[in-house]
Amino acid sequence: MTVRHILAQKGGDVVTIPPHRTLGEAARLLAERRIGAVVVAGATGEVVGILSERDIVRAVAKGPEALDAPASAHMTAKVITCSPDTPVTDLMEEMTQGRFRHLPVVVGGRLEGIVSIGDVVKHRLAEIERETEAMREYIATA
């Protein structure tokens, strides 16, 4: 199974924010949308960074004035991405090793979606359930 299968179920909508918006605006956006990360996108839609709840907590821990700083000052600029053809097992390994929970899906430099660890777990549980049901059917007919 690939990332394409996950995106087919969840869709390709991605919440983005321009790099000049404040950290406070980004935090409000995360709260309003009930999401854990927002992709920081340039004027042409390219991924320039990602800003997670963790990034915001680290910034605010240094002082509340961080909320007035631009998102670009606190985002993770070196963004690891994947493609729709990335196998889910590779995605899980990347997320575990990198200790992050969100991966933007990029095709030809264009943002196509985002996958969270929650999406991966949901997908994997559904896959296990399908395998279990197939084994039950096989056993019942044997």
Task: Give the tags.
two-stranded antiparallel sheet; 18% strand; 5 helices; alpha+beta; 3-stranded mixed beta sheet; elongated; CBS-domain; 142 residues; 5 strands
What is the percentage of strand-forming residues? 15-25%
- Overall pLDDT level: 92
**CATH topology title:** CBS-domain
Q: What composes the largest sheet?
A: 3 strands, mixed
CATH evolutionary superfamily: CBS-domain
Distance between the termini: 28 Å
How many individual helices? 5
Count of individual beta strands:
5
What class would the helix/strand composition place it in?
alpha+beta
CATH class value: Alpha Beta
- Domains counted in the coordinates: how many? 1
Helix fraction, binned, reads: 40-55%
Task: Provide the fold topology.
Layout lengths: L2 H8 L5 E2 L5 H11 L3 E5 L5 E6 H9 L26 H11 L3 E6 L2 E7 H25 L1
Parallel strand pairs: 1-2
Antiparallel strand pairs: 2-3, 4-5
